[in-house]
Amino acid sequence: MKILVAVKRVIDYNVQIRVKADNSGIETDNVKMSMNPPDENAVEEAIKLKTSGVVSEVVVVSIGLEKSQDTIRSAMAMGADRGILVKTDQMLDPLAVAKTLKAIVEKENPDMVLLGKQAIDYDCNQTGQMLSALLDWPQGCFVSRLGVKDQTITISREIDEGLEELEIQLPAVVTCDLRLNEPRFASLPNIMKAKKKPLDIISIDNLSVDTNSRVKYIKVEEPPVRKGGAMVADAKELIQKLKYEAKVI
Amino acid sequence: MSILVIAEHNNKSLKASTFNTIKAASEIDKDIDVLVCGFNNDDVVTAASKTEGVSKVLEVNDRVIEHQLAEQVSQLIVNLSKNYSHVLAPSTTFGKNLMPRAAAILDMSQISDISAVVSPDTFVRPIYAGNAIATVQSSDKIKFITVRPTSFESVEPSGGNASIEKISYNLNDVKTKFVKRQESETERPELGNAKIIISGGRGLESAENFKLLNEIADKLNAAIGASRAAVDAGYIGNEYQVGQTGKMVAPELYIAVGISGAIQHLAGMKESKIIVAINKDEEAPIFGIADYGLKADLFEALPEISKELDLLNDIAK
Ligand SMILES: Cc1cc2nc3c(=O)[nH]c(=O)nc-3n(C[C@H](O)[C@H](O)[C@H](O)COP(=O)(O)OP(=O)(O)OC[C@H]3O[C@@H](n4cnc5c(N)ncnc54)[C@H](O)[C@@H]3O)c2cc1C
Ligand SMILES: Nc1ncnc2c1ncn2[C@@H]1O[C@H](COP(=O)(O)O)[C@@H](O)[C@H]1O
Question: Is B292's CB within 8 Å of A130's CB?
Answer without folding.
Answer: no
